[in-house]
Structure formats: structure tokens, C-alpha cells
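testing teh design pipeline on a random one, pls ignore if ur not involved
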């Protein structure tokens, strides 16, 4: 004798739907966009996603930028580092990247971590610390998004 419990069958179908590539890709798309927005906020606030203010521009740099008609904002010379973030996602991962270079100089990495060779102070904009930990607010928002999507799907 077998008994089919319709609610459990329905729940099982919803759980499989949560595992579907379409739903996971959509989730990773949103996580990528949240990450990209956190990075852009760092540029607007001129501080790391962890809240540390960036070091001011040197007087020499300020004078140069003014003379060249460039933005007076920190890390806003060509605008590429601020605006050229790419979000690529699959059903299993998301990548947020910016490969902007200037004369073969990967200036994103130099500004994120600083460079003694080029006398550039670190002005972190990525929401990941040196140990690989995600910034707390972004991590919390990602958790909320995952819980919300999962709950929403289960309650359909």
C-alpha cells in the first residue's frame, strides 16, 4: 500500500524548481548587481565598503587633475575604474570584474591594495577584506535575498 501526500509532492517540486538553473542564474545575477553597486558606492563615498575613508589626493595630483580638466574626485580620472564593472553569472557562480588598464598598468589592483613601486596608497573599493571575507552589510543582504527567494518559491 502506498500513500501519496500531495503537499509533500508539491513541496518536492518547488524545491527542485529552486535548484533549477534559471532560478539560480537569476539569483547570481542579483548578487552580482548587489556587489557591483557596493563597489560603485565606495567610489561615490570615497571610502572602502568597510567604511574606511580613502587617503586624500596629494596636492600635486589635485593640481594635475585641475590643469587637465579632470574630475576632482578620488579615483576618477578616466571613469573606467568607476563605471566599467562587468557582472557575469551562470547557474553556479557570479563574477564581478573590471579589467581597465592604462598603458598596460592594471591600476585597479594598485589602487585596491596600494603600490610602493608607484607610490600609490591603498584605496580599497572591493567588498572583500584581505582574508577573503565579504563586507558584513553585503553578506547580510545576500543572505536575505537567498532566504527571500527560497521562501517565496516554497510558498508558491
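output:
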Amino acid at each position: 500500500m502506498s500513500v501519496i501526500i500531495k503537499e509533500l509532492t508539491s513541496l518536492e517540486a518547488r524545491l527542485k524548481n529552486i535548484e533549477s538553473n534559471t532560478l539560480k542564474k537569476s539569483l547570481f545575477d542579483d548578487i552580482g548587481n548587489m556587489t557591483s553597486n557596493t563597489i560603485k558606492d565606495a567610489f561615490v563615498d570615497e571610502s572602502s565598503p568597510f567604511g574606511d575613508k580613502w587617503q586624500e589626493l596629494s596636492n600635486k595630483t589635485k593640481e594635475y587633475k585641475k590643469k587637465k580638466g579632470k574630475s576632482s574626485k578620488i579615483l576618477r580620472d578616466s571613469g573606467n575604474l568607476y563605471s566599467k564593472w562587468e557582472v557575469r553569472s551562470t547557474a553556479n557562480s557570479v563574477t564581478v570584474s573590471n579589467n581597465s588598464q592604462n598603458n598596460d598598468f592594471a591600476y585597479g589592483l594598485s589602487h585596491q591594495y596600494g603600490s610602493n613601486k608607484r607610490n600609490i596608497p591603498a584605496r580599497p573599493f572591493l567588498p572583500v577584506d584581505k582574508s577573503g571575507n565579504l563586507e558584513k552589510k553585503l553578506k547580510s543582504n545576500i543572505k536575505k535575498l537567498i532566504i527571500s527567494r527560497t521562501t517565496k518559491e516554497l510558498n508558491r
